[in-house]
Structures are given as C-alpha cells and as structure tokens.
Specification:
Number of helices of chain A: 6
Helix content of chain A: 25-40%
Radius of gyration of chain A: 21 Å
CATH class of the largest domain in chain A: Alpha Beta
CATH superfamily of the largest domain in chain A: Nucleoside Triphosphate Pyrophosphohydrolase
Shape of chain A: globular
CATH topology of the largest domain in chain A: Nucleoside Triphosphate Pyrophosphohydrolase
Oligomer: homodimer
Chain lengths: 249, 249
DNA sequence: ATAATAGTGTCTCTCAGACACTATACC
DNA sequence: GGTATAGTGTCTGAGAGACACTATTAT
C-alpha cells in the first residue's frame, strides 16, 4: 500500500458524524454614517426565538460555501447589495447564545455609503427591515454592548447577543479609522473634506480639530482633488476630493 | 396559548439536524520570544490528513463549551499551561481546508514567557511537539503566510492552512504591540528595559531606537522600577522593572 | 454688505530619533 | 584601567492643536 493509497483509505473510512456539531451562522453588521451618527441595518425577527426583536442580518453557513461568500450572500439577499467593503469581525460562540441549538456565529461588518441604503430600506415597508441609529455608551475603544434606537430615540429590543456584536463592530471601526482608509467606504465618489471629517466624527463619537484633520488627510496623500466644487451650499463652495488609490502611496 | 407557551412549543419542535453542519475546531497559536525571534509551539500530526506535518495545536469544539474555554482546554492539554494571555484571532473557513470534512477553525493566539515552555517541550521527546522559530517573509503588518524553521533553519512542512494562521498571529501581535501591553506577557515578572526592547524588536522584526524606546515605555507609565538590579551581567547592571497594573493609568 | 464656511499661515507643544556624555559593574 | 552596557541631557524635526487671517459664494 503506497502512502497515497493509505491516506485515501483513511479519508474514505473517516466518519464525520461521530461528534455532535454546532451550527455555524454568518451575521453581517451593515454600517453606514448619516446625521452625525452610526446606523446599522437590522431585521425584525418573524420567528422564534426572539420573535419581534431586532437582529443583525445573517444566515446559516452552507456546507460548501466559504465564510466570506456567506457574508456576501447575506448582503445580497437582505439588502440587495454587492461590491461592498466587508471584513470578518469576531466569532461568537457562547453555548447558550441561541436557545434552539448550539450556534457559533461568525460576525462580519460591512460599510456602505448611505444613499445606497435609502433604496433598500424604503423598498420594504420599513417594518421588518430598518436602519437604526446606534447608541454607544462608552468612549473610545473601550468596548461593550451597543444599543439601537428607533426614530424617537427609544431603545429597540435586540435579539440574541447582537448588542455585543454591534459593540464589537463599533470598536473595530473606531480602532481602524486612524490607520486604514475606511472613511471613504461611507462616502460617495466625490466628497468635501468636511464630509469626510463628519464621517470620522460620527464614528469616533467626538469632535475633531478642523485644521489638523485637513492637513493630516492631505499630507498623507489619501485624497486627490477633483477640480470640481460643491454648488449651492450657501457659502464658499468646497473643493471635492476623491479617494487616492493606495497604489499611489 | 400564551406567547411564552408558543415559544416553548416552537423550540421543542425545532429540528436542528435538517441542515448539514460543518465541524468547528479551535486552534491555538502559542507564541513566545527567544533568541531574537518569534517561536510557536507546533505538534507533529500522527494521523492523516497531513500525517508527519507540523500543526498548530487544536481540538474540535465540544458541544457545551465556549470558544474561549476550548482554547484554554487546548493549552492545558497540549502544553500543560493555564493562566496564559489568550485572545481570539480569526476564523478560517475555506471549504477545502480540511480534506476529511468541512471544518471551520476558530483560531486563537496565546503569549507565554519562554521559561514556562522549556519544561513543556523537554518533557516530551521533542519529536511530536516542538517550538519552531517563525520566518516572516514580509515587513510590518503586510500579512501573508509565515513559515516555521527547524534547528538548522530548514522550513518545516506545515499542515492545512496553518502557515496562514501563523501569519495572521504575527500580523496581529505586530499591530497590537504599539498600543497594548502585550510585551510583558512574554517576559518574567521582573525584567530590564533592554529585555523588553529585545522582545519588541523580535516581534517587529526590526531594530528600535534604544533611547526613545526607554523614554516611551517609562513616560507612558507602563512599568514600575522594582529597586532591584540584575547581577552578574558583566557590565553596569540594569534596574529591573515590573509591569504596572493598568488600573494605575 | 452679511453670513457662513473654505482654506492658509504661523506658533506652540509633544514626541521620536540622534547623539553626546556620565555612571557603574565585571574582568 | 578597560569594556560593555545603563541611564541622562539636549538638540532637531515631524505632526497635532490652537488661532488668526484671507477667500469665496449665497442671500
């Protein structure tokens, strides 16, 4: 028996069903920034458990699908979105996080420009799918649970451990903002430096110095002026910039 | 039927077995720093697949065990270690990463002072369990695969996607080093600033400025002098410091 | 003209790197 | 005393915050 045959025989005899297996779900925190805050797409649960509560969109992982592919599938199915910045966030695996059965949830986060979401949310009746403003009760990158608010500023009931998942997403983008060009994912192709600063301020939850922000962004070569200016803004119109391809850096 | 009863009935009727489920494994990259390099604990695989190749220690997740608990269990079982700094790293889920069956691997990394590992590795015959120096072919936080070397500097064959898992661990600790006190996890209770700098240099893979490193560490209040000095070093003995409890900051 | 924001120039403060200099143990 | 490293003092340059000042458009 050659080593290759031996390995083939081993694999053929391997019984994958001897250990009880958890289910694996992929949940995607779709984030955007508008009105000075961070907003997340949430779906109202139609079924038990946690029926009527609001949940981060997700799906069980298919048996021949990569984790990244599952995240893309969730974004396409729940929000009709493709080509979105998406990154793995953290994996949640407390034994009792889902009362049905053991579910290990691989969480992702995705960033999208708000105008691409307006269509998504208005297409539904905004009853079972909505954008909710996040309320972050901790400063900086402390971490912890994060709530979601309805239009009147009341806390929405969140399903499972999704307050923790939202908290991890906020912590992550706050941490990445300083060294990764993620602000651009939340803006249209052309934007003023003021727009970009507002995005950063919303994510960080604090005001930034106007002048040093401008200099930092320009000095790092992250943006390129387009030569166009915004119009009809009621004051001196700002130069519009676009994200500089990182290959230029 | 009250809402509570209805939920109970739903959960009782829920059949968790209708979807095929992947296996979930927890792999732990146990890292230490010595001789100017980063070293990882690797186990030689006794069985197919990848028999004879070197793998990051791991185990299948038990059905009632949290992910963190599984990581601790792996450290206790494979290295006899408890109370080690451990943190979730990334989840690897390519459909073909294990030829036996679909396995989603939740990777952790752990940091330990090298003297605590000498016992572990010498207890075995160093045939099926060893520390291997990592060879990192990329600068900074670029990311990518990382190899492991034997005592003669030859590449060890790694199992599965474990070169990628090692790479993610190195990328993570390089990124965390600047803002998190992880260097102390790799040193005994009392250490000189020179020792600490060598740990940082080994992790980052580049030399650091002696003077500014000293000032940065002291000015941030991360360390407290013990009043003791190292002895028998052949030159002026350095002050020994200990890690300052972060509550003091 | 006025309001409002865009955008520039300059000063200061902090921090990292560089480097010179002194200190101290072991040989 | 020589050697090797510990530890301090000082200069310089880069970058952030603060602030004053000019520029430009809508009303």
């Amino acid at each position: 028996m050659s080593p290759g045959d031996e390995e083939q025989a081993y694999l053929a005899a391997y019984d994958a069903s001897i250990f009880p297996r958890p289910s694996v779900a992929v949940d995607v925190v779709l984030l955007t920034v508008r009105n000075g805050g961070i907003w997340a797409l949430l779906a109202r649960r139609a079924d038990h458990p946690h029926r009527g509560r609001w949940a981060v969109p997700g799906s069980f992982l298919r048996i021949d699908e990569s984790l990244d592919a599952a995240a893309s599938r969730v974004l396409a199915a729940k929000a009709g979105l493709a080509d979105i910045f998406t990154e793995q966030l953290y994996t949640f695996g407390a034994p009792d996080r889902d009362p049905r059965t053991r579910v290990v949830a691989v969480a992702y986060y995705a960033l999208v420009e708000p105008s691409r979401l307006d269509r998504v949310v208005s297409a539904r009746e905004a009853v079972d799918l909505r954008l909710a403003r996040l309320s972050v009760p901790w400063p900086g990158e402390t971490g912890g649970s994060v709530g979601a608010l309805d239009d009147e500023g009341r806390e929405l009931g969140l399903a499972f451990d999704h307050a923790e998942i939202l908290g991890m997403a906020v912590k992550r983008i706050r941490g990445k903002l300083d060294y990764a060009p993620i602000g651009f994912e939340l803006l249209p192709d052309a934007f003023s430096l003021r727009d970009l600063r507002f995005v950063h301020e919303a994510i960080l939850g604090r005001a930034l110095n106007k002048d040093s922000f401008r200099r930092r962004i320009i000095d790092r070569g992250l943006v390129v002026p387009t030569g166009r200016r915004a119009a009809g803004v009621g004051h001196r119109p700002p130069e519009l910039y676009r994200f500089a391809d990182r290959s230029a850096t």
